[in-house]
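Late entry, written up from scratch paper. The run itself happened at the end of the previous shift, but nothing got recorded in the book at the time, so transcribing now.
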Amino acid sequence: MAQNTLNPRFPHTCRVYRLEGASSFSKGEEKELYKGQCRKSSSDNIRTFNTGSSTTGKVDSSDYRVSIPAIVRGLQKGDLVDVETLCGTETKLRVVNFNASRLLGDSTEILCNLPSS
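Output as recorded:
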């Protein structure tokens, strides 16, 4: 992905996609939902916490927030995000939660987890 230099509010480049048909026997096929400018930042306000035992009451946490200056149609929890910043590339960030809005212009906010190893 080429680094975006046109809009200083969205200095990063990202790709949002889904793996369709993935199984233990196949990697599946990638369906691209969005590719273009974005802004990645740490998500300091969302953290993991438990409301019960180790198997119940767990709440997903997010490590990053990705802001996109467009509506990403068809986005679902579990989709993946690759982000290229000035400092490097993060790949396969898992979508935990998202919100699309047209209030102040089209935008999508995505909360992501680091890829599991």
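Confidence is low (pLDDT under 50) at residues 46-52.
(Scratch paper discarded after transcription.)
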